[in-house]
């Protein structure tokens, strides 16, 4: 371990940019201020030649992919050299399992790099108890921190009466088409549904617009949302509906709860645990395909949310920083044989 038990840990992300995932911004700030930890943002020269105790991978595919063929080749060459360096040292590898499966990539070279990182991990950080544990790899559950501080500078706006919303990037697996179909089947004559977010393809955008235009109660704001616009879209709705076909970790659900809005999400182990954690009245769930009855029940619940806000005390970022520091120490001990 580093001198004076001060751990030097490099992240797989660099200095956060305005467009970076809020999770990266908030984790970066938490680790920067954590005592006993020297927080290193990713730098290729330091990664290859510098001294550090652990390398923490979040989304490793971002290191090995690129927007152009030349960038992809350069990054994969770098990844190959980095792995060679890691094979020859006692640097511990930590992986946060943001997703259950490895990303689906087209390049065989990139798949080899990702699988090596996956096999070589000394320690896993899981965001919830439902993420599978891998035999022989120690792990810790560190819940995703809340968004209350992140949105603190956004001026609150009141919820518009009888309004439900979907907010976030619009992807096929998120089931927005099913949400619109279910809402069109409701008897919520005085309610409105607002879809806010950027679709993944032009075809999907055209489909969402056509479905929304068929019902005057539905509006679609299909564009990239700034953080401020995202927060206002959430707060201006009485409740947020996330009809995902698959949901494991949802930053949008946590963001909505952080902004004081109840959510409707698919029933699974993760969301059941979230409902128990935050308290009654904040997380409603549906089974199977979202139905008109599910939306009508959620609308009734959203009309009178609990007076006390959702309990997010276990998701404070100071706790997140402490838990990461402890995880890094365990990973380094595992890599060095308990020394």
Descriptive notes:
With 339 residues, the chain is α/β, with parallel strands linked by helices. 39% of the residues lie in helices and 15% in strands. Strands 2-1-3-4-5-6 form a six-stranded parallel beta sheet, sandwiched between helices. It starts with 6 loop residues before the first strand and ends with a helix. The model has no long low-confidence stretch (mean pLDDT 93).
The shape is globular
* Gyration radius, in Å: 22 Å
Give average pLDDT, whole number.
93
Q: Give, in spatial order, the strands making up the sheet with the most strands.
A: 2-1-3-4-5-6
Order of H and E elements: EHEHEHHEHEEEHEHEHEHEHEHH
The SS-based structural class is alpha/beta
Helix content: 25-40%
Report the sheet with the most strands, covering strand number, pairing sense and barrel closure. 6 strands, parallel
Number of distinct helices? 12
- Compute the separation of the termini in Å: 9 Å
Give the percentage of residues in beta strands.
Answer: 5-15%
Number of strands: 12
Low-confidence stretches: none
């Amino acid at each position: 371990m580093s001198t004076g038990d001060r751990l030097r840990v490099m992240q797989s992300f660099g200095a956060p940019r305005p467009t970076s995932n809020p999770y990266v911004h908030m984790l970066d700030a938490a680790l920067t201020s954590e005592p006993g930890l020297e927080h290193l943002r990713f730098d290729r020269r330091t990664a290859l030649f510098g001294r550090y105790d652990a390398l923490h991978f979040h989304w490793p595919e971002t290191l090995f992919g690129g927007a152009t063929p030349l960038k992809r080749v350069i990054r994969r060459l770098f990844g190959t050299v980095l792995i060679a360096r890691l094979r020859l040292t006692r640097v511990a590898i930590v992986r946060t399992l943001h997703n259950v499966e490895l990303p689906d990539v087209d390049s065989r070279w990139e798949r080899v790099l990702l699988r090596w990182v996956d096999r070589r991990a000394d320690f896993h950080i899981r965001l919830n108890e439902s993420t599978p544990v891998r035999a022989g790899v120690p792990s810790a559950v560190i819940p995703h921190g809340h968004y209350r501080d992140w949105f603190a500078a956004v001026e609150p706006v009141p919820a518009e009466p009888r309004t439900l919303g979907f907010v976030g990037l619009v992807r096929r697996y998120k089931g927005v088409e099913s949400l619109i179909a279910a809402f069109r089947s409701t008897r919520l004559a005085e309610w409105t549904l607002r879809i806010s977010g950027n679709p993944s393809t032009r075809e999907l955008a055209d489909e969402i617009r056509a479905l929304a235009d068929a019902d005057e109660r539905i509006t679609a704001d299909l564009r990239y949302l700034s953080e401020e616009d995202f927060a206002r879209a959430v707060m201006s709705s009485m409740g947020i509906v996330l009809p995902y076909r698959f949901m494991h970790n949802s930053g949008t659900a946590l963001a909505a709860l952080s902004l004081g809005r109840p959510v409707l999400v698919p029933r699974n182990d993760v969301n059941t645990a979230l409902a128990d954690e935050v308290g009654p009245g904040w997380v409603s769930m549906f089974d199977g395909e979202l139905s008109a009855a599910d939306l009508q029940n959620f609308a009734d619940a959203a009309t009178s949310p609990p007076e006390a806000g959702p309990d997010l005390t276990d998701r404070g970022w100071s706790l997140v920083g402490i838990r990461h520091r402890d995880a890094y120490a365990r990973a380094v001990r595992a890599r060095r044989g308990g020394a």
